[in-house]
Amino acid sequence: MTEQNRIIILAIESSCDDTSASVCIDGEIISNIVYSQRIHEEFGGVVPELASRSHEVKIVTVVETALENAGVTKDELVAIAFTRGPGLVGSLLVGVCFAKAMAMALDIPLIDVHHIQAHVLSHFIEHKNTSFPFLSFVVSGGHTQLIIVRDYLDMEVIGTTIDDAAGEAFDKAAKMLKLDYPGGPWIDRLSQKGNENAFTFAKPKIEKFNFSFSGLKTSILYFLQKKEKENPHFIKENIHNLCASVQKTIVDILIDKLDKAATQYPVQAISIAGGVSANSKFRSAVLDYGHRHNIDVVIPSFEYCTDNAGMIAIVGYFKYLKKDFCTLDVEPLVRGYQL
Fold first, then answer.
1. Cis bond leading into 109, ω under 30°?
2. Both 16 and 153 in a single domain?
3. Interatomic CA distance for residues 278 and 188, integer angstroms
4. Which residue has the higher pLDDT, 3 or 203?
5. Are residues 311 and 195 in the same domain?
6. Which of 100, 195, 211, 336 is buried deepest, with most CB atoms within 10 A?
7. What is the pLDDT of residue 40?
8. Is residue 327 part of a domain?
9. pLDDT value at residue 228
10. Class of residue 316 by CB neighbours under 10 A (exposed 0-12, middle 13-18, buried 19+)
11. Which range marks the domain in which residue 204 is found?
12. Is the Cβ–Cβ distance between 277 and 299 less than 8 Å?
């Protein structure tokens, strides 16, 4: 491909509390800049208004840095991809409006990207030869979904959470254990020194491939309240075993549903994506499952597990090849945005 015909796409991700921009050239991620907001830590969770304000402050710098690191100018861009949803409406608005304005100024196509679709395809950044169909397991703070992927732009959700997501269960359990936000990484880290069979928590029985974690959170809460009445120092004295037991329970729930889905839908491979795919026990459990059942397992690098514009860019590239563009009157979609 000649220099003039290179497909150079700028991608923007602003669905929650990470401001990110990426440059993709001919399907290769050349730069991927992520600014993570630290202000939410003192509140123990993401504050939507603070998140959107931070995006407004940082988005220009993040985009300029992505272009500079990729060694391209805005005039070389052939399209701009952006996260349309789902996510926080204020955060999405910042990214959508910026992408629309830049595309209009440069007179180039605009590509809307579904956030979950981007997680599903994120492993193609590094694992380009994954065979279709494959089963994608998207597990994050806001989503827990099992998806059959028949082609780059052909996906079917076969299972989803009916209440809380797995990542939220990790963070809420961590809060009960008096750990800092975000709590998931703390549980993973502290569990390394714990006995995962020390304590048992309730596992909800949900039909088919759907998930529920609200009952598990209630089980953990009542257990800790009872134990702290008997011993005010119970959590501190048992923190490693508690973290390991909570982590094992959540991962067991996930793997049980994965097994049911993979049994009913024979696939060539299994991929995991989303923030929880960075969890060491979840990664090893999926790899072990694939080994036992002779199914390939593909996992993105840590950099592409959490929210980032690189995954938006790779979807933007596939949609660009299909000339699948959106109009300039596009608006964010917080809910009801189907794959």
1. no
2. no
3. 9
4. 203
5. no
6. 211
7. 46
8. no
9. 97
10. buried
11. 130-299
12. yes
For residue 331, being part of any structural domain is answered with no
In the block, residue with structure tokens 């990790």: 170
- DSSP at 126: T
Token pair 């809307």 is found at 112
The mean pLDDT value of the chain amounts to 92
Do 315 and 283 share a structural domain? Answer: no
The angle that helices 239-264 and 166-176 make with each other, rounded to 10 degrees, is: 170
Task: Determine, yes or no, domain membership for 106.
Answer: yes
CB-based burial of residue 59 (10 Å sphere; 0-12 exposed, 13-18 middle, 19+ buried)?
buried
Tell whether 106 and 135 lie within a shared domain. Answer: no
Q: What percent of the chain has pLDDT over 70?
A: 94
Three-class HEC string of the chain:
CCHHHCCEEEEEECCCCEEEEEEEECCEEEEEEEEECCHHHHHCCCCHHHHHHHHHHHHHHHHHHHHHHHCCCHHHCCEEEEEEECCCHHHHHHHHHHHHHHHHHHCCCEEEEEHHHHHHHHHHHCCCCCCCCEEEEEECCCCEEEEEEEECCEEEEEEEECCCCHHHHHHHHHHHCCCCCCHHHHHHHHHCCCCCCCCCCCCCCCCCCCECCHHHHHHHHHHHHHHHHHCCCHHHHCHHHHHHHHHHHHHHHHHHHHHHHHHHCCCCEEEEECHHHHCHHHHHHHHHHHHHHCCEEECCCHHHHCCCHHHHHHHHHHHHHCCCCECCCCCCCCCCCCC
